[in-house]
Amino acid sequence: MRVKPQRWCGMWDVLPDAARSIVKELIIHGPQSRTALARTLRLSTGSLTRLTKPMVDAGLLVEGDVVHDPVNGRPTRPLDVAAGEHRFFGVKLTADRVHAVITDLRAQIVAARDEPIPDHAPQAVCRQVRRLLDELSGGEEAPVGAGVTLGGDARSAAQLGGERLVDSSYLGWRQVPLKSLLEEALGVPCVIKNDVAALSHQHHWFGAARGLRDFALVSIGAGVGYALVVHDHLVPAAESDLGMFAHLVLNGGGPMCGEGHRGCASAYLASESIVTAARQGLRRPVTYEEVMRLAADGDKVCLGVVGEAADALGRLIAQVATYSMVKTVIVAGEGVELARVAKDGLDRALSANRRGRPDSVDVLIEVDDFREWARGGAVVAIQSFVTGSD
Ligand SMILES: [Zn+2]
């Protein structure tokens, strides 16, 4: 079934920046009275009314039921975005699977699916993503935009006609014009982003870091990822920067990673490293989930492996907080169960590397659901739509 085009996207292109700020404020912080909005955004109530009227008329903003204004006590009808009326499409590509979600304007998931990637050719993947969009949309209106995230450098140094090309070692892609290919396949504007960067945007607008100007995010799973938000902006990172982080040496005498470093972050924290260490001790094949379960049940081998990894994670978080001076570090990714199973060990290592003050940094452990990665894709599409840039 083919999706129908959206009715009001055209108006968005001509909206002034002040109008975009209003939508952003409402999306992130929820419904507000016109007086409260005007005060937050430093606009006169006259300007606010002038800016919001066309958006209310077009159905992008809605007025709620009458309440008493918290600022001046008068009856008022708070403004909100019509979040449920607008759809965004988010996709995360891994080496072997595609995860896709449809969300509303506040990044709430309304439909989700994941499946293997049978053919890694870029055009074939784009066709697969299009089919997923059609299936998840169920014949409803087309999404306003799509965001696709993937590991590594989502923007190669090379350009073609102004488009940044995509390299992905996971997918075996070199200099792929992914944005053009996807826009042709999907028929809506597409944003391409590094997956960890997208996850940090998600937490910044809709998750644990909402309202924070500064925070860091460490992701653990197939690889070790990092994102840093300072003064409300994500610090740009190239693949080489992220590689430096993933292979930061935490203990010179530790286990060896696939690149031959002893005791680097990946050697302790990448899923493959943990599974390999547990397999050696147990003398049988084992999955990451099983290692976590066995550790939680008190198995000595798995407790040892998980304990060492948690100690490394505590050190890594301490270093992140110390060098960047952020007070909040989010731990996310599909391997995050490790931080829960061995939270005590993590806290001990954090404390030992923070002058005995583990509470000097707020460590937030997030859910380990692959849909969160795809949701990050929807979030960068939402942000691109609202701010007018990608
Ligand atoms: Zn390494």
From TrEMBL:
Q: Which Gene3D superfamilies match?
A: 3.30.420.40, Winged helix-like DNA-binding domain superfamily/Winged helix DNA-binding domain
What Pfam families does the record point to?
ROK (PF00480)
Q: Which InterPro entries match?
A: ATPase_NBD (IPR043129), ROK (IPR000600), WH-like_DNA-bd_sf (IPR036388), WH_DNA-bd_sf (IPR036390)
Recorded family membership: Belongs to the ROK (NagC/XylR) family.
Tell me the protein's name: ROK family transcriptional regulator
